[in-house]
Design the sequence.
């Protein structure tokens, strides 16, 4: 009989190697270290809490017809909260912190990375692996 216990916990972050947008190959530094993000699933508790918070905020403000800009900002925030940690990415020689503000700035500077995060987070197969 199939047993759900054979699958990983959807609340555990998973490693997403970052692809160089110009080559599609892993994005590596001069020492061969692969840049990556540890990401939570769209089905994770963290993502769901943020989505519910956004819905509650909209209801409280009676924002039934949110602007496209507000919707985009909410989506970016939701995906930023799905980032558990940033691995091997620097700016001006300093490692990037893994806080939401840094991730939001990273998404703005590197929209190609934001697209990779969306694609990865939305694909359930990336997070449901057999033990």
Sequence:
């Amino acid at each position: 009989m199939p047993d759900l216990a054979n699958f990983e916990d959807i609340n555990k972050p998973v490693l997403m190697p970052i692809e160089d947008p110009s080559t599609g190959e892993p994005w590596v530094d001069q020492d061969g270290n692969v840049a990556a993000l540890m990401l939570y699933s769209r089905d994770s508790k963290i993502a769901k809490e943020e989505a519910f918070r956004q819905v509650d905020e909209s209801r409280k403000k009676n924002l039934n017809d949110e602007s496209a800009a507000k919707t985009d900002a909410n989506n970016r925030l939701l995906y930023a909260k799905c980032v558990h940690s940033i691995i091997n990415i620097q700016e001006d020689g300093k490692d990037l912190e893994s806080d939401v503000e840094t991730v939001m700035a990273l998404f703005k500077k590197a929209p190609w990375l934001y697209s990779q995060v969306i694609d990865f987070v939305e694909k359930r197969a990336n997070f449901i692996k057999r033990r």
Residues 45-60 form the longest helix (16 residues).
